[in-house]
Amino acid sequence: MSALRRYVAAISHLGARQAALNLVHRARHRTRLFGRYARSGRGLEWRGRARVPLLAHDGGAHLDSGDFTAIGRTDVIGDPPYWDADAPLLWLFNLHYFGWLDALPPSEQRRLVLDWIERYRPSGARPGWRPYPLSLRLRHWARALFDGRGLAEERPRILASLEAQAECLADTLEYHLRGNHLLESGITLKLVAACARGPAVSRWERLADRILDVELTEQFLLDGGHFERSPMYHALLLHGLLDLVNVLPEEDERRVRLVERLPGLLHFLAGMRHPDGEVALFGDAAFGVAPEPGVLLDYAARLGFKVTAFASGSFPATGYHVWRRGGDALVVDAGPIGPDYLSTHAHGDLFSYELSLDGRRVVVDGGTSTYEAGAERDWVRSTRAHNTVEIGGVDQCEFFGAFRVGRRGRPRDVAARVSEDGLQLSGWHDGYERLSGSPRHHRELVMASEGALFVWDAVESRRPQDAVSRIRFAPGAHVELVGPGAARIEAGGVGLSLHAFGGTLSIEPGEYAPRFGVREPCLVLALRKGSASELGYALARLPLEARIDPAGATLGGRPVARRSPSGSLGARA
């Protein structure tokens, strides 16, 4: 019954239109004749011009002497490659993206592209002919055509394949999914249409313009962030949009709109950077998949945009709140898990945070190591993999499969203030109201500019519920309990003290997944709630003295006020 309930909840969040489009897509895919994309093109001409060299990025994929590496996995595929290797889907996608092409000598680029054209014939059963790999491969091949070295000698044959692939993409657009997949396809069709001449080009451009007009407005929120709330996917899409600004004519209406919108997107990316330069790892996010933020910001600067290396403040539409000072930064996730119809990349990270001190990550998100359904994927998305409160031993949302979500939590009454002096944030979510007693989790955070974080949690429930608040420290950190409610931490050369109330502290073995295919051991402090409804902790850089209780906190003897006085968090009408 619980499995059926999850499916019903997931489908209800899709809405009637998206559910119907999913059925239509499946029916059309089964009957589509992919053989038509093997025919010769109708004479595509390449006329692409770029203002600056297009930004290449391999996404962590490498092909070397018959060995292919992607998402932390290396397999032998031979030479010439066995394009139908038996491997996880995301690994195969990376093989067929061709992001690894730029690293090869021109003669190898040409040989491998021609081999793919000859031996990887169109088929709906082949991962490389799905819309998302088509979109990225077309852009990587286009980048090689701009370079002009590797593919120039066989340009007519390669352009015929490029035309066939673009036709396939135009016929199989993922309107049933929407989100980043559909927008990536729109970006690709627009880029190829801008760089080519031929009978099919006007159709590609019409489709692309419709996608860009609708999806840019919906997917990028007023604070500049992407609506799927993954900093990694925000960076990936930003890369494609910058490519469009690079190649579209000055008078193109979509380029004009992009030039107006992109400063907000760039500012959001600058906000999602830690002092180490990489993105925060909320939602499905991992290092190496998208270009590093600094590289994207430099690319934007070469295209004439004014950029800021790092940003802080509240991004209320996405729900991220960022405080930073020098090498210290706190990033808090207090936003929805994503749009109702597309929670594919959501994690159980409501009111979670990441903390950097002295330029190093100290408190880390669990990260993302896989998209393959199973125990590892379940852990990646789970609440216990994030720095927030888990109630009743279950997740804030009903995660199942690799990407599905049934009933899900929503943040409520979020109030945040970010200034040079620190950050204050409070709110609650209803993700656990499906449990007995309809529990709610309230959280309040105060970050002091000296380098101290204060966290108050309350579990309001009509029936007793177990709860645990976790703090995940970066790999290599040393964590030691020094009393029933105290711990000493050394992380990356930074000494910290933690003082807790309202529960019992313990140390748990944990893992950290900063990249696909990588799970590094780390230590987690777990604060298990006692009989009272409130619990909390103060985490401070040594030698600062920080103390906390339900009424408030002190830092070096100075009072630290909380927004919600003791007892008010549990009030419920």
Give short descriptive properties of this protein.
single chain; 573 residues; alpha+beta; Glycosyltransferase; Beta-galactosidase, Chain A, domain 5; 2 domains; eight-stranded antiparallel beta sheet; 26% strand; disordered C terminus
What structural class results from the helix and strand content? alpha+beta
Helix content: 25-40%
CATH homologous superfamily grouping of the largest domain: Chondroitin AC/alginate lyase
Q: Report low-confidence residues grouped into runs of 5 or more.
A: 567-571
Shape: elongated
Count the domains: 2
What number is the mean pLDDT?
93
- Number of distinct helices: 11
Order of strands in the sheet with most strands? 14-15-16-17-24-21-20-19
- Which CATH C-level class of the largest domain is it? Mainly Alpha
Q: What is the terminal-to-terminal distance? A: 31 Å
The CATH topology of the largest domain is given as Glycosyltransferase
What is the correct CATH architecture of the largest domain? Alpha/alpha barrel
